[in-house]
Amino acid sequence: SDSLIVDPHKWLFAPFDACALIYRNPKLAKKAHLQKAAYLETLEEDDEWNPSDYAIHLTRRARGLPFWFSLAAHGTAEYAKAMERTMEVAKNAAEQVRNHPNLKLLMEPILSIVAFEREGWSSDDYEKWSDKLLADQIGFVTPSAHKGKPILRFAIVNPWTNEEDIAEILATL
Q1: 143: phi then psi, degrees, rounded to nearest 5
Q2: For 18, phi and psi rounded to 5 degrees?
Q3: How many beta carbons lie within 10 A of that of residue 18, not counting itself?
Q4: Is 39 exposed, middle or buried (0-12, 13-18, 19+ CB in 10 A)?
Q5: Beta bridge partners of 103
Q6: Going by C-beta distance under 8 Å and a sequence separation of 6 or more, which residues neighbour residue 10?
Q7: Whose CA is closest to 171, among 91, 99, 87?
Q8: Measured in whole angstroms, how far is the alpha carbon of residue 94 from the centre of its chain?
Q9: pLDDT tens-digit readout, 22-77
Q10: Element (H, E) at 144
């Protein structure tokens, strides 16, 4: 691939609209995105890097900066630790689902997503359960779908989520 976009708003704790855009060949990307106008030429220096030359945002705020600042402040080791913790909790959540009498685990979690279903439930059942869970301030778990069937899924991205939180949620099923 010639470019890669990293959407850091979940696992990497960045604002929702933050983005990291990585190019294999930045010169080619600059050719594609460079905007020419007389009023912009005063800002141009041939040897100067300008983020506006690498995406279509021009006068919009630099959305990647909050992510960069967080990465610079905390370091990659802290991010790795947080990600590893969420994956540990996901594995434990899968085990709790497997041991639950009303639930069926749909697949082993690879990262931090745990997909499961409650046998016999419809989309409406999942929606009502999800709404009540949120209203009761227990958790935020939204219904999803897998192979055309309604399901539930945990997307564990907060490293402070723990095994007891998962157990409390599953107890409502």
Answers
A1: -65, 155
A2: -75, 150
A3: 20
A4: exposed
A5: 118
A6: 155, 157
A7: 99
A8: 19
A9: 889 888 888 887 777 777 666 666 667 777 777 777 777 777 788 888 889 999 99
A10: strand 143-146
- pLDDT tens track for 110-132: 999 999 999 999 999 999 999 99
The span from the CA of 69 to the CA of 171, in Å, is 39
Cβ atoms < 10 Å from Cβ of 44: 11
- Residue pointed to by tokens 């939180």: 165
- In a 13 Å sphere around the CA of 93, the CA atoms on its Cβ side amount to 29
The domain spans of the chain are: 3-73, 75-170
Contacts of 71 (CB under 8 A, 6+ apart): 12, 79
Q: Which CATH code for domain 75-170? A: 3.90.1150.170
Q: What is the pTM of this model?
A: 0.79
